């Protein structure tokens, strides 16, 4: 589905990513892991043509019959959102502060040629419900009236609005507390199961990778060092760098719970319901 071959990303002083080869299959959750500065985000940006102007990319990023690196700015704009969409760590950046969430979602649909106003509103409400938000209220709210977790859900709703086939999630939970992060990842997983969307997930948290990703690709200093089925790679890492990454996972602090602190499913549901009305 998405096939990257020989991707090299550089500035005029250094090479950031070198000869990267990576594929994301339909419906798959693929984690791109590695320490800070290894080139994960630059790879994600290159897919959507979002690289800073001082940075160039060459190679092949094949999507359907196109090399995405060859698209014009106009072709790219029509692809982004409708076929490939992004969520980022900085979910505040997904929305303009002083415009209601609903009007921003509506504008996104209008920009992609959806003319029917009623159908647009209906779709916005449907997607806000899909991400388990109180839809009508969030539709009328300004971004600053929502909590961090709600805003990241609204950003996911925006990313899903036009039914893309690939969601690129660049460290989507780093700015969230542990419980909210867990809920957001669970939500993405549910959506993937229901819609068959593929997920390319940029992360450095191998604990979450083990739980959610089908496949992992490990990057080190701009190169791919290991890729494979998640459990196989994490249980039997072949590359010394993957072993080092695994060894660097911080242990849970003494006395910390080894699972989320719910006593029962009822308690979990009650907590999640109250979070939606916070
Ligand atoms: N605008 C830029 N111009 C030039 N080089 C950049 C720019 N942004 C990032 N880089 C460099 O590109 C390299 C890879 O950065 P990238 O953000 O892709 O890493 P990463 O693996 O996503 O790390 P992190 O987890 O910290 O986001 C780094 O060495 C960084 O200094």
Verbal overview:
The protein is an alpha/beta fold and 278 residues long. It folds into 2 domains: 2-83 and 166-276, P-loop containing nucleotide triphosphate hydrolases (Rossmann fold); 93-163, no CATH class. Helix content is 40%, strand content 23%. The longest helix is centred in the C-terminal third of the chain and has 18 residues, at 178-195. The protein starts with a strand and ends with a helix. Adenosine-5'-triphosphate is lined by residues 11, 16, 34, 36-42, 52, 54-55, 204. Residues 11, 16, 34, 36-42, 52, 54-55, 204 line the site of adenosine-5'-triphosphate. Residues 2-246 form the ABC transporter domain. It is found in: Cell membrane. Belongs to the ABC transporter superfamily.
CATH topology of the largest domain: Rossmann fold
Give the name of the CATH architecture of the largest domain. 3-Layer(aba) Sandwich
- Extract low-pLDDT stretches: 253-278
Number of helices: 11
Could you give the distance between the termini?
39 Å
Residue fraction in strands:
15-25%
The main sheet comes to: 6 strands, mixed
Summarize the structure.
Helices cover 40% and strands 23% of the residues. It is an alpha/beta fold.
Which helices and strands occur, and which strands form pairs?
Blueprint: E1 2-10, E2 15-24, E3 29-33, H1 40-48, E4 56-63, E5 66-67, H2 73-79, E6 84-88, H3 101-111, H4 117-130, H5 135-140, H6 148-160, E7 166-170, H7 178-195, E8 198-203, H8 206-212, E9 215-220, E10 223-229, H9 230-235, H10 240-247, H11 265-276
Parallel strand pairs: 3-8, 3-9, 6-7, 7-8
Antiparallel strand pairs: 1-2, 1-4, 4-5, 9-10
Helix pairs in contact: 3-4, 4-6, 6-7
Bound molecules: adenosine-5'-triphosphate.
């Amino acid at each position: 589905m998405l096939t990257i071959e020989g991707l090299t990303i550089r500035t005029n002083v250094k090479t950031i990513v070198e000869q990267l080869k990576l594929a994301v299959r339909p419906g798959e959750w693929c984690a791109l892991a590695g320490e800070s500065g290894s080139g994960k985000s630059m790879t994600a940006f290159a897919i959507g043509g979002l690289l800073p102007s001082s940075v160039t990319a060459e190679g092949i990023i094949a999507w359907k019959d196109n090399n995405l690196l060859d698209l014009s700015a106009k072709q790219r704009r029509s692809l982004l959102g409708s076929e490939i969409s992004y969520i980022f760590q900085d979910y505040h950046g997904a929305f303009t502060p002083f415009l209601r969430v609903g009007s921003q979602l509506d504008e996104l649909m209008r920009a992609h040629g959806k003319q029917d106003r009623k159908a647009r509103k209906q779709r916005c409400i449907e997607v806000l419900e899909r991400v388990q938000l109180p839809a009508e209220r969030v539709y009328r709210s300004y971004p600053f009236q929502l909590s961090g977790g709600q805003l990241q859900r609204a950003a996911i709703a925006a990313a899903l609005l036009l039914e893309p086939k690939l969601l690129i999630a660049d460290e989507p939970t780093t700015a969230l507390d542990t419980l909210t992060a867990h809920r957001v990842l669970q939500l993405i997983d549910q959506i993937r199961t229901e819609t068959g969307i593929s997920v390319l997930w940029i992360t450095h948290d191998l604990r979450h990778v083990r739980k959610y990703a089908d496949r992992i690709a490990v990057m080190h200093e701009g190169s791919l060092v290991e890729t494979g089925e998640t459990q196989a790679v994490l249980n039997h890492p072949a590359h010394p760098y993957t072993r080092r990454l695994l060894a660097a996972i911080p242990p849970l602090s003494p006395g910390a719970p080894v699972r989320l602190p719910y006593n029962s499913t009822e308690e979990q549901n009650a907590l999640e319901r109250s979070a939606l009305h916070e």
